[in-house]
Amino acid sequence: MNPTEPILQAYREGQSALLLSGRSLYDFVADNGRIRPLFEVLRRTLFREYGMVFISYSMATGLNWFESWIPEEADRQTIRHLLRNNNLLDLPKTENEVVSVVRGVASLSRTNTENLKWKDGRQMRFAICFEFSEHLTPGGLTNGTQTDSQLIVTELVHLTSQSLALRDSGNLILFHGRETLVDELVCSALKRVHLLQPDKTEKEDFLTNALNLYSDATFENGLTPDAIVSLTINTPNRGIENQLRASHRGKRILTAKEISEQKNRDVEQLSEGTLRPLETSNMQNVRLVGKNVEKPNNILMKLADCLLKGDPSMPANLLLAGAPGTAKTDLAKLVSFLGKSPAYEMISPKGSLVGETERKARLQQQALKEWTPNVAFCDEISESLPLERSEFDGDSGASRAVTATLLTALSDETRRGKSLLIATTNRPWAMGAAMRSRFTVIPVLFPLKEDFPSIIVTTAQRIAPNSQLSATDSQIIEAANIFYQKGANPRHLRSALSNALLLSGKSVIEPNDIFFAAHDLCATTDFASTVYADLWAIKCCTSRSFLPWSDAPSQYGFPDYLKGIVNEQTGEIDETELTKRIAELKPNANV
Fold first, then answer.
1. CB proximity list for 259: less than 8 A, separation 6 or greater
2. What is the pTM of this model?
3. What 3-state class would DSSP assign to 212?
């Protein structure tokens, strides 16, 4: 689809004053085999289809009506005459220039164009584009703090945008800027058009044209055009164009790392630091072992397939709850990798300025809704975002604004099959009931003692892939017992094995290195806190089928801390005993 189509469609529907947000007008697009800035494609399209003279204005560049691109002198004279009559030619560079331009445009835009013709007989109209609208009519200002010029411009835009003369003239006024930073009075009078970043189809078309233009661009092995599209989808074309041009002119190889780094910069800039791309390509050969991770792994693999198919019946919000270091983050990354959808880490949008938090929170959710399909990931959500309603207002309502925006986004049913939010926590009790109820909660419990040897072997082979190890080796089994007694989670295992490899100076990990690592580890967590987190994860679990023993309770090796809470034959949970045990552990738990 022509990226200018949303603008054209709004005009065809009779809208004569538009607020454009989202994509930059200076991003590149493919246009009939050429690569042009978006504003240039818009200029040409409006001229070709509606006979419009395109005029742009910004405080930096002044008024530009692209005179040199109009071939007929007679047409140029007609335009000059109209601009001069509306005091838009030879504007003095004064502090009141903006007011003069807006007044002139207000007059010009209401000009009757019925008898105004191009030399070729077509009707002549005008399209005026104000760039950086948030600088002309900034929003979020307290009444009384605006300058006289800002007040005048705001009033003029509000009145002109609702003018019947403007509507009857067939002229078009465009305001482009960051919508959330534009004055509310201006926004209320304009039809809002959000320009989307390039989707897969547009990105493929653009890349085809760019590769034809930069035919000497070369890539590292395995970096195909499809891979480039996948890496750059929903980000501006300008970044990849700059890289292709550099490769073409500099005769150097373009790497996936460079493209990924550019994408990271684009995403952070577009989301104003509220989203960060999550690297998932390293999950290709990752294996997660152990009964306590097997059930959530199977569930999430099904969800990855649903995401791949765009299945609207899938849940939209998952909460992986359990003790620290139990592979919750790896599970989220696997969904993104297998679902072939980019993953974005959510960063707290709280800011120090009044209104900034609300604006950034809305921007974050808008981006996630726009850049579908995707996986939104929030690590330790109970720490990253305010999730419990409170009367405390020490941050001027910022926390409550984030909570309200997140609650609204989580309740959006249109996200199903398009965007999957996966959050992790080892403190589900820190979430308010209203927030927790919006998640499908899946427990990811501390590994069983019997699974430690396999986890050790898998972890060691991730660190040193050439290591030849067996979970039945006596040294590994003994090391597993030591690790378990110390309350070491998989994260501790990885750290201990990495240290052992470093100290040994070898390129592979051997059983004696693992045995050394077990003795050498100084565990940093207490097991009471681990048990406390697991019990809460069980308490908050959304479905009995999500519990690791649900399929065959009698074959599950229940740890001591679950005995008396879970019936080892039926898998039934004694809720009273569970609540009692949680209360007993609370004074000693530090999660």
1. 223, 228, 231, 232, 240, 243
2. 0.82
3. helix
